[in-house]
């Protein structure tokens, strides 16, 4: 009986504390935080993209790894078609995300 009373008491405390909190859904767009930190200058963004592209070069992958990517990509007809046009790395990345190794 004591545990039931304690449980009810804790629920009442939680209800009282949550009643005083502002509703997050009723915040107007004017009160929302600004997104000033989201935008990056064009030259900085291109440097980051170039560095990311340089991280996975075809020379870094062995023949066995490329063959493994090719086998995965051949299971998907659209990926296989893109592989013939754009290359195995571009096709695998477009359909399956970053290369796992």
Automatic annotation (TrEMBL):
* Record-level GO BP terms: biomineral tissue development; bone development; osteoblast differentiation; regulation of cellular response to insulin stimulus; response to vitamin K
Cell membrane is among the record's keywords: no
Extract the PROSITE patterns matched here. Answer: GLA_1, GLA_2, PROKAR_LIPOPROTEIN
Query: Known InterPro entries for this protein?
Result: BGLAP-like_C, GLA-like_dom_SF, GLA_domain, Osteocalcin
One GO CC annotation, please? extracellular region
Could you tell me where this protein is found in the cell?
Secreted
Top-level taxonomic group: Eukaryota
Q: What keywords is this UniProt entry annotated with?
A: Biomineralization, Calcium, Disulfide bond, Gamma-carboxyglutamic acid, Metal-binding, Secreted, Signal
Extract the signal peptide range. Answer: 1-18
Report the GO molecular function annotations: calcium ion binding; hydroxyapatite binding; structural constituent of bone
The reply on keyword Ligase is: no
Residue ranges of domain Gla in the record: 51-97
Tell me which SUPFAM superfamilies the record gives: GLA-domain
Q: What is its main location?
A: secreted
Any Pfam family:
BGLAP_C
Family assignment?
Answer: Belongs to the osteocalcin/matrix Gla protein family.
Supply the name of the protein.
Bone Gla protein
**What is the species of this protein?**
Onychostoma macrolepis
Its lineage opens with:
Eukaryota, Metazoa, Chordata, Craniata, Vertebrata
